[in-house]
Design a protein that fits this description.
Elements (H helix, E strand, L loop, with lengths): L3 E9 L6 H9 L6 E3 L8 E3 L9 H16 L9 E5 L5 H14 L18 H10 L5 E2 L7 H14 L5 E8 L4 H10 L22 E9 H6 L6 E10 L12 H14 L8 E3 L6 H14 L5 E3 L2 H4 L6 H15 L1 E2 L13 E2 L4 E2 L4 E8 L3 E8 L1
Parallel strand pairs: 4-5, 4-6, 9-10, 9-14, 10-12
Antiparallel strand pairs: 1-7, 1-8, 2-3, 6-7, 8-15, 11-13, 14-15
Helix pairs in contact: 2-4, 5-11, 8-9
Length: 381
């Protein structure tokens, strides 16, 4: 099997405008979540905004793609590179803006106001990234709810493993702070009122955040040939679906467990080989309860666990990609990142409440999305 490694990381989040800034603030136990009112028709809410106003998808993508290439020591032109960049919301903000214009101007709304609406189709962001780097190979734009980030990385790894390319740009970008998204989650009763507290006894719900994480993936042989630095290796991954409910996880966590088992088997690992789990940890009642049960059942020996959503907010489709970036930094620095906001854990788990030095060789990153999309990926130094 072809070994696939990470040679570049681009990341932007509410914690900072770069990978280094976000990691430094995360390790310090800081949170980028603040009270904001980006839309006057909606009340103020805790949000993980990168700036003072909601970000724009294309700008975020250009930023992290450029950062990943620079970090990997690659020039902008990468014709043979595959591009796999996903998003669960994609250009939803643009469509909402257009809809508001249509309804406010009603019959006087000219067709010319639609502009080039083809530029806002869900897959166009990945194609724009390919144009940005001059890539003329395979372009994919996965959408798998909150599992999108890990699913994108897994798809890119499979392209390399099957010899379809030697390099890939992969990850996820999310700019989900829109009126409809906020109103929808609020109507579901899923939004927190003060902040995100994963696995905490007093957790209130999720806090929406925006962010992006994009990686340069390469075959280990190709990376060695060009003497690239390596953050870590993909050992394996697991991808399943509950086929149960549109937004509630399957109560027994059967297919979530199946995804983890699949990942461990493909990675030739046993549960005791995992030193750290970057959990999905949304701080909602149902997700944290199900995920805790799954971890306790799969890892009875105990394992360090944290969720970084108390710092970044829940970046939906990008959350798994951010989790992979933080997991790679944990491997690099041998530091377990804290689960900021987890002050009184409800569950019998080894929740990392403050950054700690630890010997870390293999880590597991989990994502569980709406519709029962489950993803697990194993990484190693």
């Amino acid at each position: 099997m072809v070994k696939v490694v990470f040679t570049g990381i681009g990341l932007v989040s509410a914690l900072g405008g770069s990978l280094e800034d976000s990691w430094r603030n995360l390790i310090a136990g800081k949170s980028g979540i603040r009270l904001h009112q980006p839309f006057p028709e909606l009340r103020p809410l805790p949000l993980g905004l990168i700036g003072q106003q909601p970000s724009e998808l294309t700008a975020l993508t250009q930023m992290v793609v450029a950062s990943a290439l620079q970090d990997a020591g690659l020039v902008a032109h990468a014709a043979d590179c595959a591009v796999v960049i996903g998003s669960s919301r994609s250009y939803q903000a643009s469509w909402e803006k257009l809809a508001r214009q249509m309804y406010s101007e009603a019959e006087n709304f000219p067709v010319s106001s639609f502009g080039n609406w083809l530029d806002t189709l869900p897959h166009i962001n990945a194609i724009a990234a390919a144009r940005q780097i001059g890539a003329s190979g395979i372009v994919l734009a996965p959408m798998a709810a909150c599992a999108t980030g890990i699913w994108s990385i897994a798809q890119a790894a499979m392209l390399i493993q099957t010899g379809q390319c030697q390099q890939a740009i992969a990850g996820a970008v999310e700019a989900p702070i829109t009126p409809l998204t906020l109103a929808g989650f609020q109507q579901m009763g899923a939004l927190a009122k003060t902040g995100a507290y994963p696995f905490d006894l007093h957790r209130e719900g999720l806090v929406l955040g925006e962010g992006a994480a994009v990686f340069v993936l390469e075959s280990a042989e190709f990376a060695k040939q060009r003497q690239a630095k390596v953050y870590g290796e993909i050992l394996g991954f697991g991808l399943t679906n509950d086929a149960y409910h549109s937004n509630s996880p399957e109560p027994q966590g059967k297919s979530a467990i199946a995804a983890i088992k699949q990942c461990l088997e493909r990675s030739c690992l046993s549960p005791s080989d995992i030193d750290y789990i970057h959990a999905h940890g949304t701080a909602t009642q149902l997700n944290d309860q199900m995920e805790s049960m799954v971890i306790q059942r799969m890892f009875p020996q105990g394992v360090a666990v944290s969720s970084t959503k108390g710092s970044t907010g829940h970046t939906l489709g990008a959350s798994g990609a951010l989790g992979v970036a933080f997991s790679l930094m944990a491997l690099k620095h041998q530091i377990l990142p804290p689960s900021v906001g987890s002050k009184q854990p409800e569950f019998d788990l080894d929740i990392v409440t403050a950054a700690r030095l630890s010997k870390i060789q293999q880590v597991l990153c989990l994502s569980f999305g709406f519709g029962g999309q489950n993803a697990a990926i194993a990484l190693a130094r």
